[in-house]
Design brief:
- Helix content is 37%, strand content 16%.
- It is an alpha/beta fold.
- The longest helix is centred in the N-terminal third of the chain and has 18 residues, at 114-131.
- The radius of gyration is 22 Å and the shape is globular.
- The mean pLDDT is 96.
- It binds 4'-deoxy-4'-aminopyridoxal-5'-phosphate.
- 4'-deoxy-4'-aminopyridoxal-5'-phosphate binds at residues 113-115, 118, 147-149, 221, 225-226, 254, 256-257, 282.
- GO terms for molecular function: transaminase activity.
- It holds the Pfam family Aminotran_3.
- Keywords: Aminotransferase, Pyridoxal phosphate, Transferase.
Amino acid sequence: MNAPIRVTNNLEAFWMPFTANRQFKSNPRMFVAAKDMHYTTADGRQVLDGTAGLWCCNAGHGRPKITEAIQKQAAELDYAPAFQMGHPAAFELASRLVQLTPQGIDHVFFANSGSEAVDSALKIALAYHRARGEGQRFRLIGRERGYHGVGFGGISVGGIVSNRKMFGTLLTGVDHIRHTHDLTRNAFSRGLPEHGAEYAEDLERVIALHDPSTIAAVIIEPIAGSTGVLLPPKGYLERIRAICDKHGILLIFDEVITGFGRLGAPFAADYFGVTPDMMTVAKGITSGVIPMGAVFAKKEIYDAFMTGPEHLIELFHGYTYSANPVACAAALGTLDTYAEEGLLTRAADLASYWEDAVHSLKGLPHVIDIRNLGLIGAIELEPIAGQPTKRAFSAFLKAYEKGLLIRTTGDIIALSPPLIISKAQIDELVTTLGDVLKTLD
Ligand code: PMP
């Protein structure tokens, strides 16, 4: 039996994240249920999920293994501290996760979101160097158009002006290299762009500007997702890895979006064959159902604390909800679902079908680029002078009316459906989006 749907007329009390309440109020869009590939709206319509929620519901919605695991754990052990105490699900989950991570990445620190995972990784990087007697390594390097969540660490290393400019001085000792998005050479690339590996040399330039021995870590998204699906040119990530190695700098991959099967491999690190020193994950770790984030770290990093001097044997960092039992159960149920249904490699099977499907939108009005990798796609629209985000946002509203959830950032439409999507649903997604694009002014 369905529970009654709760509806309220007060659309002000909830201060919505990254949303203008004023605009939302004039046209509220509400989901009240979700199953597999679809949301149900408050007015009873089915909406195809073209974005896995916010890049997170990789296993789709309402998956029984996940909900059952959560119910069972909440009834059995709802909460236990992880400071000086433990519970079995935390250790089991960490062991299961390190079986999935690239070789050499053997330790898991739990947080509750991507933002917390990022800030944790940055702090671990700084503390690691200090533990090894290299406390002069305090600088962090990110990228323009990088998105690393909304904590102070994340917005400092991140490269989105609007997310930074309201909030004062941010962290000091942070530098940025350029992003690699280059439509003059790479428009309508299929898969990885051919041109632009040389953007990695920016890192050498920024390092040369400082004393290299002052740099603690470089953080990058293997694919910048939130800023519009910016794919790394062939050879770029390998070059970044080599430069970090040359100077003893830690490399952090922010895999909050690319982790857990989005590219057809467990992680982007596997897909690209480039192993960072730490990885940050969230979203797909619980298929979005319960908040959870994590930092995966190499043994050398963990060992610096475990075998350091007496005053350094613990990391002075953690959250009340680190390794929350119900979140751990959700993650275990999610990993079971991924394993049973082969979801961590399913994007590889669908990738060429998906690529052809999204590229079939080429030639429609205002489309200036289409890009794809794994089960990620993006359609970039020509900006309207003076109104930079109007056209894509109008596509978002029209798609929603036609029963399709897409995500937009600036003039870019981003697609990242749950990994359970069928070929027929890919066709439906692209047909609906094509119909929408044809109506844009
Ligand atoms: N890093 C990346 C790469 C992300 O895409 C996101 C979220 N989109 C975050 C960090 C922040 O995650 P959260 O919203 O869970 O804090």
